[in-house]
Amino acid sequence: MHISSTDFVNEGRILYPIGKISAASAWHAGPVDASQGDWRAVALQELIRRAEDVDADAIIDVNYVTDGIAPADESGVSLRRVLATGTAVRLADLA
User: Fold this and answer.
1) pTM over 0.85
2) 78-90: per-residue pLDDT in tens?
3) DSSP H helix total and E strand total for the chain
4) Which CATH superfamily is domain 2-91 in?
């Protein structure tokens, strides 16, 4: 699976986009930053699995953001997760 944070891949010409895909790490208590490697890796692995499910050759425009929910009252715990998004595509050289 080819991964790119831009709208192109060096490994081939994009034949057609399949569609937007997204995946997330599990929810975690406390601060979670999208730049933290472990949470990004988990979200990326799930994103790759989803791309493989739709027979994609690559994922372009990959982006990471942190998502969270606040507790209903002050005794609760804030929950956070890392979301990975991108566009699944087929490559002309591999189709």
Assistant:
1) no
2) 888 899 999 999 9
3) 1, 5
4) Hypothetical protein apc22750. Chain B (3.30.110.70)
